[in-house]
Amino acid sequence: PPIAGLPDELLLEILARVPRASLPPLPAVCRRFASLLASQAFLQLRRASGRLRPCLLAVSSSSARALLLHLHASASASASASSLEVSALPLPPRCGGAAFAHARAVAVGRHVYLVGRGATLRVDPLTGAARACALTLFPRSKFAAAAVGARIYVSGGSARTAAVEEYDPAADAWRVVAEAPRRRYGCAGTGAAGVFYIAGGVAVSGGGAAGTAAHACAGSVDALHVGSGTRVWARHPVLVIPQHRWTWASP
After folding, report:
1. Interacting residues of 100 by C-beta distance below 8 A, sequence separation 6+
2. Spatial strand order in the sheet of 84-89
3. Any idea what DSSP says for residue 4?
């Protein structure tokens, strides 16, 4: 078609003016559209034309269905009165039902990754496009997740394994990179300065359901340094001394 013969610069100008509600299906048109819509130039043009607005992603999940909602400020909202427009984003196959029960959201670049027990979803809040990604190697619930650099790390949420998994968005693949000292459940995660921190929750031990025991570990933090390839775990709240390469101490 004639549009395929347009140069990238002109096609970007056209795509940047497409209404927000019409953007979600465009990355599936062809690889060229997907590449242009994911580019920094598209983001800059969208911002220059005043079409970028604060938005919020929300997931509603039940045993029957999952619903991904996109909430953003209305274009007609005045400075004194704010209003929200809510739209449902289409979910890819494998992302229905209870796939996102107790899921974790992690931002890498301009994408938001929803990591659930039965699905992993990459959402572009700018275009509304959602794509199913590789599942974690071990099913998890109420686990710790965070971005460190350009990769995602998850730990906890399973009584069967203490494995820490790393996700590479470029390769769309998970791999085990370490073993945590505790099998935490209901924990929280964050990343800073090349370190993945896992805090709180309960420590679960034991093999079967009948023999599983748990005790609170709300006052402890486990930390994995992933930036330099060395992995150091701390079993208690830690203090990082910047003068050394990586020094852990108990307060």
Report:
1. 59, 61, 66, 114, 116, 117, 118, 119, 121
2. 55-61, 66-73, 84-89
3. G
Q: What CA dihedral angle connects 55, 106, 115 and 95, to 10 degrees?
A: 20
Other C-beta atoms closer than 10 Å to the C-beta of 11 total: 17
State the SS3 of 9-62: HHHHHHHCCCCHHHCCCHHHCCHHHHHHHCCHHHHHHHHHCCCCCCEEEEEEEC
CA gap 239, 224 in Å, rounded: 13
pLDDT tens digits, 100-113: 778 899 999 888 99
CA 53, chain centre distance (Å): 20
Which region holds residue 214: left if phi is over 0, alpha if psi is between -120 and 50, else beta?
Answer: beta
CA distance 236 to 133: 34
Structure tokens belonging to residue 3: 């549009």
Candidates 181, 193, 192, 162; CA nearest to 220 is: 181
Say what the pLDDT of residue 225 is.
Answer: 87
